[in-house]
Automatic annotation (TrEMBL):
Keyword annotations of the record: Membrane, Transmembrane, Transmembrane helix
Pfam hit, one: DUF6541
Protein name (Swiss-Prot/TrEMBL): Glycosyltransferase RgtA/B/C/D-like domain-containing protein
Membrane-spanning parts: 12-29, 35-54, 66-83, 89-110, 122-142, 208-229, 236-255, 261-281, 288-317, 337-356, 388-405, 411-433, 445-467, 479-499, 511-531
Taxon lineage: Bacteria, Bacillati, Chloroflexota, Chloroflexia, Chloroflexales
Length: 678
């Protein structure tokens, strides 16, 4: 009883310190308010819902992982259900809701409800995990130091979606007035979260995307560590898994180079879903199934592809769990899982209806960003980048060690990766099913079981001679490859925990401190080595906009009319879209100006409009000095009023318009040129 009281006092002291630090940060700068708002928005909703539905049965780190995923889900679901009602998230609603959430969380934490006593080994491992998170966060922040705008293609339309949400207070189902696109079938859960943070903090959307993106990236160390901790049931697995994700693997750090923020946040939610699924299967209460439904629903709004990743993991967990349970228990869990899945569908019904209207398959519509089968080709350079060979070797060794010691965690992760590979390559299925069918047929004949024999015979017929499955555009090999950091980290963390456990058992007690010290030194050395040898992040090739572009974009926003139409440079990208090459591509999301190369979400527009914009982009891409008249004709036919170019970037160069009748240079600074059409 005395220890409980002491723990409660310590918890309250930490709470007071946290509140004071939050007040100082919030008053110091807009970025401080952004971090405080992020902490409240990503913790408070999930914490309160978890506390109201289930009894705490996990340490604080897995619970934090669940809170993160739940909070993102709840914010996205709020915007989703207000949208069909035509109700925006108003400023008073936003502030009152945030204050109520923060206050309720403070009161609940102060009362110290449902604390889970840690294992003797956990406090030290928790501190190590937090240390890894801290160093990872510092590293992530250095990666964006001096960066003018987020890199590459996705960042442009992410910023546009956040801007629309900030301006309307609603989910960005319509891109008007920036693009003629309505009923947008593109996941927007991430964007409404960032827009909410922008409105609470006053930070510009593009700065919020950069800063929160790096924080989300660093938080992967904690979520993956919590998954490793629960699956392996060994505290040592947590800091090792965190180290792999934060300082050894190039992914997810490299996501910055692509602006892959939606997949980043989706994968951040995945461990939380796996954890509540883990608890629900073990019969800890129906409340866990409610959490499963909420997380499934929210994840589908953040990134549909990650829903498939998560589904593969949940299936692997369920199969290993069911193999050790009697059929009545399995049947009951299957029923509850089915109800939770249906509930998730009901929770996202407006989103599902929109997807049905726009169709889920790109073959049924001319709009969309899906590639072709060549787009699914395995990029071996991406697969084996940096330390990946070493990490794969360590993960395979850990899997073998885990299977040797009959650890279900190893089997779960191996099965998960196998399912992902098959899902990204459906053509493998006709090769795998006949092998399973042969085993079932032989067993059926041996025990004279007609049904088993018939099923086995049926699977034998599903072979490459009769069946060929198509490429699934939603799940590509590259998407799987850049997500492998998660299972690799979980496996390596578990392998390290098993090895350290065996070493401690075989050595004399007097030598155990030396083993612990060696392990700690090894973690530190590995982290330093990882930081020093990791490839440069971000990739400079994907950085399209420079500080000079940012200055020019601000100038455009204040010195050109809102109806101005800009000619900008273009480059090939996916078959369904073209991309910009410099800061001119950012004119739409930052300055609200029309451009000849719009953000790639224009591909969801009317087919005639999409074809027209493709043609414009191709005319720019195919420009040569000999066909300059074609560009002049384009300027006239599209009523272009301004031209934005960066010297040395793209097929169009400033020399084409300098000292040319009909064009007047109105801006020139650090290689950025803007011309007015007269």
């Amino acid at each position: 009883m005395q220890s409980v009281v002491q723990d409660l006092r310590q918890q309250r002291r930490l709470l007071v310190v946290g509140v004071v630090l939050a007040l100082v940060a919030g008053l110091a700068a807009p970025q401080g308010r952004l971090v405080v708002a992020m902490a409240v928005l990503l913790v408070a909703p999930g914490y309160l819902v978890e506390r109201s539905l289930v009894r705490a049965s996990l340490p604080w780190l897995p619970r934090l992982t669940i809170w993160l995923g739940l909070s993102v889900s709840l914010v996205a679901l709020l915007y989703q259900w207000l949208w069909p009602l035509g109700l925006p998230v108003s400023t008073p609603m936003l502030w009152v809701g945030s204050l109520l959430l923060g206050g309720a969380t403070l009161v609940t934490v102060w009362r110290g409800r449902d604390a889970v006593p840690p294992s003797p080994q956990w406090p030290l491992m928790a501190l190590l995990t937090l240390a890894v998170f801290g160093f990872t966060l510092l590293q992530r922040m250095t990666e964006i130091d001096g960066m003018a705008l987020p890199p590459w293609v996705d960042s442009v339309h992410h910023t546009l979606l956040v801007r629309i949400t900030v301006e309307t207070g609603m989910a960005p189902h319509s891109l008007e007035p920036y693009l003629p696109v309505n009923d947008l079938p593109y996941h927007w859960g991430y964007h409404v979260v960032i827009a909410t943070l922008v409105r609470l903090s006053g930070v510009a959307p593009v700065e919020a995307i950069l800063l929160t993106g790096q924080i989300f990236n660093a938080l992967h160390t904690l979520t993956v560590a919590s998954l490793a901790l629960v699956l392996w049931r060994r505290p040592v697995a947590a800091p090792v898994a965190a180290l792999v994700v934060g300082l050894l693997s190039l992914m997810p750090a490299y996501y910055l180079s692509w602006g892959r923020y939606t997949q980043l946040v989706g994968l951040l939610m995945l461990p939380g879903l796996a954890l509540v699924w883990h608890q629900a299967l073990r019969g800890y209460g129906r409340g866990w199934w409610v959490l499963v439904a909420l997380l499934m629903a929210g994840l589908s709004l953040v990134h549909m592809r990650v829903v498939f990743f998560a589904g593969a993991l949940l299936v692997a967990q369920a199969l290993l769990w069911a193999s050790m349970r009697p059929w009545p228990v399995v049947r009951s869990a299957l029923r509850d899982a089915f109800v939770a899945t249906v509930a998730a569908g009901v929770l996202t019904l407006p989103w599902i209806l929109l997807l049905v209207r726009r169709t889920l398959l790109p073959a049924a519509t001319s709009g969309g960003l899906a590639g072709n089968e060549d787009y699914n080709a395995l990029n071996e350079g991406l697969l084996w980048v940096d330390h990946t060979r070493l990490l794969v070797a360590l993960a395979l060794s850990s899997a073998l060690i885990g299977l040797w010691y009959r650890q279900r965690a190893a089997a779960i992760v191996v099965l998960w990766v196998g399912l992902l590979v098959v899902m990204a390559n459906p053509w493998l299925t006709p090769y795998l099913l006949p092998a399973m069918g042969l085993v079932m047929l032989l067993n059926g004949l041996r025990v004279r079981h007609l049904a088993l024999s018939l099923v086995g015979l049926g699977l034998l017929l599903l072979n490459p001679f009769f069946v060929r499955l198509p490429y699934l555009w939603l799940l590509t090999n590259d998407a799987v490859v850049i997500s492998l950091f998660l299972p690799l980290a979980v496996l390596i963390g578990g392998g390290a925990a098993l090895v350290s456990e065996q070493l401690v058992r075989v050595v004399r007690p007097v030598l155990r401190p030396a083993i612990y010290a060696t392990g700690l030194i090894g973690l530190v050395a590995a982290g330093i080595w990882g930081i020093q040898t990791m490839s440069e992040v971000p990739n400079t090739v994907t950085v399209l906009a420079t500080p000079a572009d940012r200055v020019a974009l601000d100038w455009v926003a204040t010195n050109t009319p809102s109806e101005a139409r800009f000619l900008v440079n273009a480059a090939p990208w996916l078959p369904a879209a073209r991309r910009g090459v410099d800061g001119g591509w950012w004119l739409s999301p930052l300055a609200g100006r029309w451009t000849t190369v719009p953000p790639v979400l224009f591909s969801y527009g009317d087919p005639a409009y999409v074809a027209h914009m493709h043609a414009l982009g191709d005319r720019i891409i195919n420009h040569t000095p000999e066909n300059r008249q074609d560009i002049f004709d384009l300027i006239a036919s599209e009523s272009i009023t301004h031209i934005y170019l960066v010297e040395g970037r793209g097929p169009l160069q400033p020399t084409l318009f300098a000292n040319t009748p009909g064009f007047r240079q109105i801006y020139a600074d650090n290689g950025v040129f803007i011309f007015a059409v007269e």
